[in-house]
């Protein structure tokens, strides 16, 4: 995903002049971003974008506002997240992998994963989660299974899933089985791909 | 019967309430920021409270197919505490948010000079942010409180049609009926208003600009009394269209003035992964 792709995808928003003006504004007046960020969904919309799949209009517009800043991306992303409503927080999380910030915003992932808002947990497990340490990443994946978030939202799931995650999933499956409750099909399939957890792998151990 | 509860404190209610409300026809609510029973002692605790009104609570409501909006303000009671007054400086940030459809609850508790200042200041904020205002009227010395409320509203310059004066009753209704303000009535199990009394007021004053809410909170209250009032209206001979006007179209019209009311796709699931984190997360 690149800002150019998002920009192209947003050509059809109801009020493209607003978005153009907002992007020009943040490039020269970064202090304007909190209000523009809050307004973006009302001005651009909230529906799903046909392409790229998995993105909504407001997430894409807010991501462009963040990528359009001249500097201080990490500090601004953090402030917008801390002061944002749930949709703004989600947009910040989606934007993180597109910002020149290294691992600076990992604390935002920790915050999102602690919540019980499944939309935030899902958004925290995109490409930026490559900076998330392995124990936290495993628990976040397990939380997805526990709360019914489809594992398709997890970036690089098979590349990163390891024996320890398999053991955790197997334990959850045993609990669910004892309780007469089902595991989500995508979790069972992952467990099958990983084996039963009795042969820990060393893939990217933290 | 589709119901929009224009004043309910869901933070103080359980998920059982959401289930029962949804089953009774409640599809949308507005949750005004208010006093939590325990006085607060710092600004930071308001930040967490306001954040929950635009974060966790809408998500929780969405699990049950209920659309949640909020109003944000420093409430009259806590406007008297100097430790809480800097909350006024926080408000502009929240008044920009999508889910915030009015400034409120503002108004009077004990009619002190501090309440005067907070009330007038927050009406000005409503004007500046192009938002309606939800005005609480006091429990004690109510009639004089309403008179003073209307005087402050007139002085503020806000369009009366963008003001909802709440918690009215047989005594105070007349004062507000003569203005262009909207009239709110809180139906309670014992105090404030009851469904039969509300029906009488609707007979006398008609359904125009009349809003009925449960104002359910941490006290003795019942989130289904909106529905009970609708049923009492039908029994008394009001039409289904009358009920729909009072319980749905009037609140939609009033809060719709914010330009931020989002009632799209209400039949469908509100969250991407509806029905999970609360239903399973607590088990």
TrEMBL record, chain A:
It comes from the Bacteria. InterPro entries: EboA_dom (IPR047715). NCBIfam families: EboA_domain. This is Sugar phosphate isomerase.
From TrEMBL, chain B:
Pfam families: TatD_DNase. This is TatD DNase family protein. One of its GO terms (molecular function) is metal ion binding. Belongs to the metallo-dependent hydrolases superfamily. It comes from the Bacteria. Keywords: Hydrolase, Metal-binding. InterPro entries: Metal_Hydrolase (IPR032466), TatD-like (IPR001130), UCP005295 (IPR012022). It comes from Micromonospora chaiyaphumensis.
């Amino acid at each position: 995903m690149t800002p150019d792709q998002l920009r192209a995808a947003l050509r059809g928003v109801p009020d493209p002049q607003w978005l153009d003006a907002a992007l020009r504004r943040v490039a020269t007046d970064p202090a304007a971003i909190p209000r523009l960020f809050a307004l973006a969904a009302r001005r651009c919309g909230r529906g799903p974008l046909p392409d790229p799949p998995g993105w909504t209009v407001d997430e894409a517009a807010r991501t462009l506002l963040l990528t359009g800043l001249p500097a201080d991306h990490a500090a601004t992303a953090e402030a917008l997240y801390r002061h944002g409503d749930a949709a703004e927080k989600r947009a910040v999380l989606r934007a993180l992998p597109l910002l020149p910030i290294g691992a600076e915003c990992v604390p935002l992932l920790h915050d999102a994963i602690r919540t019980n808002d499944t939309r935030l947990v899902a958004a925290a497990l995109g490409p930026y989660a490559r900076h998330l340490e392995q124990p936290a990443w495993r628990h976040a994946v397990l939380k997805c299974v526990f709360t019914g978030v489809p594992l398709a939202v997890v970036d690089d799931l098979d590349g990163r899933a390891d024996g320890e995650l398999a053991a955790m999933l197997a334990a959850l499956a045993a609990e669910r089985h004892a309780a007469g409750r089902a595991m989500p099909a995508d979790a069972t399939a992952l467990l099958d791909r990983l084996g039963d957890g009795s042969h820990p792998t060393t893939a990217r151990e933290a | 019967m589709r119901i929009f509860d224009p004043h309910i404190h869901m933070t103080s209610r359980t998920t059982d309430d959401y289930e029962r409300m949804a089953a009774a026809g409640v599809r949308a609510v507005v949750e005004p920021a208010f006093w939590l029973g325990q006085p607060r002692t710092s600004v930071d605790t308001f930040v967490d409270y306001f954040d929950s009104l635009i974060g966790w609570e809408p998500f929780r409501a969405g699990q049950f197919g209920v659309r949640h909006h909020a109003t944000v303000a420093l409430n009259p009671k806590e406007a008297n505490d100097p430790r809480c007054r800097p909350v006024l400086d926080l408000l502009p940030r929240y008044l920009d948010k999508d889910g915030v459809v009015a400034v409120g609850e503002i108004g009077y508790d004990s009619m002190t000079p501090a309440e005067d200042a907070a009330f007038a200041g927050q009406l000005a904020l409503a004007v500046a942010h192009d938002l309606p205002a939800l005005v609480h009227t006091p429990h004690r010395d109510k009639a004089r409180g309403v008179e003073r409320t209307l005087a402050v509203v007139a002085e503020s310059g806000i369009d009366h049609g963008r003001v909802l004066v709440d918690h009215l009753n047989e005594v105070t209704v007349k004062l507000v009926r003569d203005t262009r303000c909207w009239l709110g009535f809180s139906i309670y199990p014992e105090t404030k208003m009851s469904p039969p009394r509300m029906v009488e007021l609707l007979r006398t004053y008609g359904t125009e600009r009349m809003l009925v809410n449960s104002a359910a909170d941490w006290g003795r209250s019942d989130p289904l009394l909106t529905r009970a009032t609708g049923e009492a209206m039908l029994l008394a001979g009001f039409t289904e269209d009358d009920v729909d006007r009072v319980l749905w179209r009037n609140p939609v019209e009033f809060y719709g003035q914010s330009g931020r009311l989002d009632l799209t796709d209400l039949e469908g699931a509100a969250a991407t992964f509806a029905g999970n984190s609360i239903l399973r997360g607590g088990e």
